[in-house]
Amino acid sequence: MADSPESLNTLDISRFLANQSTPSEDRQLAASFVQLAKDVGFFYVSGSESLVPQELVDEVFAYNERFFNLPLEKKDALAYTSCKANRGYLSFGREQASLSKDPDQIGAEREAAKDQKETFEIGNDVDPEYPEHWPNEEDIPGFTAVRLPCARGRSLRTLTTCPQTMNRFHILLDQLHLRLMSLLAISLDLSPDFFVPQINGRNHCLRLLHYPPVPRSGSNNRIGAHTDFGTTTILFQDDTGGLEIEGPSGSFIPVVPKPNTFILNFGDILARWSNDALKSTVHRAVLPDLKPGEDPSAPTKTRRSVAYFCNPNPDALISCIPGLEGPSGKAKYPPVVAGEYYAQMLEAEIGA
C-alpha cells in the first residue's frame, strides 16, 4: 500500500446485495474483499442502498445532532456505567482510545491524549441482561422503537412495535454485516455461513459520535491512534474530514469523505481469528485541515460520524480459523471468549 489517499479502494457491493451477481462474480468480489483486508484493512464500500437506504443514514445523522444538542443533564442521565453492557452516554473527554495501544501514558502526555468527543452507545435492544439507555420519547420522538400502526403487506395492523430510526438502523446494519462476513468466508474458501453460528446474536454497538468545535491552538487529537476490537466496523462520516489510517511507513493517510459510501475496516478479534492474515489497522481522528478562506484563529468545524462495531456473540470462542495457522502450523494467539476480550479492551480505554 502506498502512503497516499489514492491507495484506498472502493468496493461496489450493489449486485451482491441485490442477489443479482453470479457465483463467479461473488468469488471475484470476495477475492477483492480479502485482498483489501490483508493489505490495507480499510476501504470504501458503495452500493449498500438496497439494504440500508441513504434516507435512513441521513435520518440517523439528523438524530445524532438532536441527541448531542440535548441539555447536559439529560445526556448525563443516560450515562455509560459498564463495559460489559457497553451502552449509554460517554461525556466529552471520558474515553481515551489510545490507551488500548499505549496503556503506560502518564501525566501531561495522558491528559493531552484525551479524546475530544462525546458518544452515545446503542446495543441490541432485546438483550435481556443489559437494557438500553434510551432518551425519553418526548425529548427525541422516534429515536427508538415506539408502538405505531405498521404496514404488513396490504393490510394495516395497529399497536405493532415498529423499529424506528436507531433500532431499524441497528437491524439493517446487522444484516449487512452478515452479508459481508459471508463474502469473507467465501474468500477464505470456507462455506458462506462459516461465521454465522458465532456472529448471529446482533451483539454489536451502534455509536453516535460528536466532535465539537475546538481551538486549533490546542491538541490536534480528536480520537487517539487505536485499533478497533471486534470483527468489522462500518463507519459513516460527514464531510468534515479528519479520519486517518496508519500506512506501512508509519505515516498517517487521510480517509477523505466520499458521498454515498461507508468505510469498512477490520478489528482485533478478526485479526486473531485469522492468525493475523487479516489486518486490524491503526487509525485516528485529528483536526480537519484548514480550508481556503477559513480563519485559522476560529474554532474547527463540528465533526459527526456513526460507527457500527460488529462483534461475535459474547460466548463465542475465537480460535484460529482452520487452514490459517501459517508456516509454523501453530496459532499465534490462544483462544479467547469474545465477550470477555471485548470488555477488557473497552475497560482499558474507558475505565468502567
From TrEMBL:
UniProt KW keywords: Iron, Metal-binding, Oxidoreductase
GO molecular function of the protein, one example?
Answer: oxidoreductase activity
Transmembrane stretches, by residue range? none
Q: Which Gene3D superfamilies match?
A: B-lactam Antibiotic, Isopenicillin N Synthase, Chain (2.60.120.330)
Fe2OG dioxygenase domain boundaries: 201-312
Which InterPro entries does UniProt cross-reference here?
A: DIOX_N, IPNS-like_FE2OG_OXY, IPNS-like_sf, Iron_ascorbate_oxido_reductase, Oxoglu/Fe-dep_dioxygenase_dom
Hey, which family's this protein in? Belongs to the iron/ascorbate-dependent oxidoreductase family.
The protein in question is named: Oxidoreductase
Q: Which organism is it from?
A: Rhodotorula diobovata
